[in-house]
Protein 1
Amino acid sequence: MAREEKTITMNMGPQHPSTHGVLRVVVELDGETVVRAEPVIGYLHTGIEKTMESKLYYKALPCTDRMDYLAPMSNNLGYCLAVEKLMDIEVPEKVKWARVCLAELTRLNSHLVWLGTHAIDLGAMSMLLYAFRERELIIDIYEACGGQRMMTSYIRIGGLAHDLPADFDKKVRNLIKLIREKINDYEALLTNNEIFINRTRNVAVISAEDAIAHSLTGPMLRGSGVNYDVRKAQPYSGYENFDFTVPLGKKGDAYDRYLIRLEEMRQSLNIAEQALDGMPEGPYRAHVPGVVLPPKEDVLYKMESMIFHFKIITEGFKAPKGSIYQAIESPKGELGFYMTGDGTNRPRRVRVRPPSYINLAALPKLSEGRMFSDVVCAIGSTDIVLGEVDR
Amino acid sequence: MKDIMKSLGNVLIKMPQGFFVTLKHLFRKPVTLDYPRQKKPMAPRYRGRHYLERYDDGTERCVCCGLCAAACPADAIYMEPEETEKGERKARVYEINLLRCIFCGFCEEACPEEAIFLGQDYEFSSDNRDSFIWTKPDMLVPHPRKDNPFKRIYRRVRKVYGVPDKTR
């Protein structure tokens, strides 16, 4: 009996361990070759953008933590920069430097988790344990700063939630020293590992033209050799003062992206160190009465501050009419916030440009014509967080 | 041929270096904790469960102004005011729905009386949903303050926000 159907359709996920969350991929297979791979999303939809529209500007901040939960500080930073742009707030110098330092630690945090999970997807178990061990130290710093390990809400509109802790400098310097050594260990484990090379070299290739056509950003784009980094292209929060290089790949395969992320981790350590060296003294919050919450000390001892404190918390502040777009380089790519103010105390519309979501759209391109097991590698090297994909 | 030699070099020379990294860890102290028996001390700013603070004479600090309820992004706080015999305002009902609470610490930041604060405890799981609606008896720190474990976290708000202790 002759068979008519040549291809079979298979479901990968939404509960598959290597899809990094609740991603479902409908894969059409011819033997073991992928004919078509289609990501299906929406299993983690939380309506964060819509929720933000019904909240006061400062109360929408905890929502942003929950989008890319591996890089909470980057999301906080993007949101706060957007609101500050809308309200035309200038933050003190110290805040800028502290934010850069925290954003780079966040990049390190996110890349460490990526490294561990990507490696375990490809069969390297111990990498995950080592990466999470080092991530724990970064999370301890988050805890010391903002009081929570993942949902930090530390970067606030117009400054920071509290001043940096007293031993922040010492802790971060120790961390930088330690991770510099550990990255060499990671390299020893993976970079020249023949199994890892065979699983990633020439797998999930995307050319520079395709990468631009799919509007990829972050390491996905730079892996194909396109030099675009928001930190260099449109510097924010004082990134123009820092000296760092943007690593570029050649082939645009998963191995190039791995090398780029490792190099980015080293650059992040350099930037964080520069931020610590140059950290100026000063207040940790901008003084903008009626918009930025006054420091706790003023609330307790000064009448006007107390009045503003009550007014901001009960009524919020009114943003002017108009739309702004503010992009930052989150660990996954360009994270943008498009906000429209309509003269009231709530945003008319908040639109997030999530890098994970847009990078994920290139998955069919990355995996078509490849083996089924390469889909795992493609998803892993895209570095997605489903909280951000679905929002 | 060149590729094969390179691969062979990787397998014979580079990969054992990787194995050595793993081998080193065999002789290191574990970084994990034996959790229920060993516990990690939380950072001073850690945002755990809520407490309601008292003055030194035992009266409650909370005046039921509703600012914490207004600041709460999750709408987890409910309160009703009443007057004491002295004519002071205080909370008759003060409830926090811990199932809604996201532990963002905005209530603590908003409170103008330093009445509510988030302590260091994080273990409050339960198999009964009703037990997650916390009322005043669950949250008020015990009185008298002498010889009780809450002494350590007394006036946490001031420590965390770096407020100098003037007379108030």
Protein 2
Amino acid sequence: MQHSGDVAPSSQLGQAAVSSGSRPGTWTLLASAFTFAIMLVALYATFLYAPAEAVQGNVFRIFYVHLSLAWLAYLAFVVVFVGSVGYLWRQTRGWDHLAKASAEIGVLFTTLVLVTGSIWARPVWGVWWTWDARLTTSLVLWFIYVGYLMLRGAIGDRERAARAAAVVGVLGFVDVPISFLSVFWWRTVHPPATTVAESGGLTPEMRITLLLMLVAFTALYVFLLRFKMVLEGLRDSVWDMERDRTS
Amino acid sequence: MGYLFAAYAVVWVGLFAYLFLLGSEVRGLRRQIEELTRAGDEHPH
């Protein structure tokens, strides 16, 4: 285990943890500036550069954010799977931090996918929700990873919580390919993203806008992931210092 | 236009709420670390 060896005195641990978590480094400043700038460019492209869609009109602009969030949510859960396998294999805290951080961001993005999808469905399909295969499997995905986070919170012991969560992170991943492929396996009203992107329905401006939005949300995901991992490192320092105090 | 506005508003409110929560978490943890460090300095083993 990463923290099972000699424990530094709490004052040293505390000073190191506070200094590592208090001042944003050059990487953080550059990453946040890039994320902010690319997000502004992507929003400009979404509302002012991309034309309105011929059939759906302006409401089609929801597509850019909805699709980007959906792809990043899948990526987040792939990272949870990798982090969980890494933790079960190597038993080091870093893998657990990666899985936990990515699960939290994945749940946030999936929540936003479900809500934006519902808002888009109302004017296009005439309903807020339908028990379509893609929608249902996405909702199941949301429940699995909310359960993952609740399980972590419910188990007091840090190592036991990490182990149990890693098992759920591996088993829960089964729903990711099912959700992704559901639009090909079953007759659904939800179109596959690849069909929309490749059917010729997107103009070059729409494709550029989609690409910009994907880059912007990928940058946001990486930024949030790194931030959350630093935060989990701080939380570990608190655990270690409390253990040091009580031992 | 109402649906479009609602969708983007939900996304930005959600993202900023999450960033706010992360910020509060960092502040809380730093406060805890400072308190534990101070306690460790005052009562060393």
